């Protein structure tokens, strides 16, 4: 009776998705194994709103592939997790980011670097041990880094993740909750976790200057964060008015295109030399 099931269910758009996923998996494996620099890191400055000085950089991965062109990190990170490749990607990110941070420290810059970790990463004890050893080899202390994780990371397998977070926190690492506001956790819940910073998701910040709803949400989050003694970063600041609102409301740190786009190491160095910040 189901002899024509394939025909009934066949959808070309699903096949296209499947083929793209397969190509990404194959090409990413190859990129990780080869020395060609398909993968690179860019860094986006964050400024301390009380001093208007650069305080940190978020490290963001980029992938340019010959066949696929530019592949958005959101897309290939998700596929890397499903294909068992995320450990290799994160290891590469850690090595490159810490090497670049070390370079900037030697140049005399004091900013910290924020690295993104995925759900599987914070459950992977050997990977986290590797982070500690890369940092130690570079003669950098854990407070040179911030680790960004999302709320969902703490729901997936809460006990193991939280145990690993606690272990790293006691060694001096700091964690920030990324994309805050898009998940389910409340600030009260975060209070019990080894997290000292939240990053308000850019969806609430992009139209802050004009959207009354966003204003209300951001104002409320800032008030509660102060009560819970959490530092707040606003990401996705694209205009001066939003920056001023955030500053006025006591937001600690801002990141976004208005300050700078994410920049490759050389461009960042140039930006740092010429920036009035
Ligand atoms: P995210 O961690 O939330 O990173 C912030 C994203 O917002 C970045 O996108 C950044 O380029 C973008 N952004 C920054 N300022 C603005 C702005 O003013 N306006 C707008 N419209 N966008 C802005 P990107 O680089 O495409 O990264 C997307 C996501 O991919 C990241 O979201 C993160 O979840 C993931 N990702 C990127 N690099 C890494 C990495 O090295 N490791 C892991 N695990 N995930 C990464
Ligand atoms: Ca992030
Ligand atoms: Ca984010
Ligand atoms: Ca994100």
TrEMBL record:
Source organism superkingdom: Bacteria
Domain EAL, chain residue ranges per copy: 21-276
A GO BP entry: signal transduction
Protein name: Signal transduction protein
Source species taxonomy: Bacteria, Pseudomonadati, Pseudomonadota, Gammaproteobacteria, Alteromonadales
A GO CC term assigned to this protein in UniProt: membrane
Coiled coil region boundaries: none
GO terms for MF: cyclic-guanylate-specific phosphodiesterase activity
Keywords in alphabetical order: Membrane, Transmembrane, Transmembrane helix
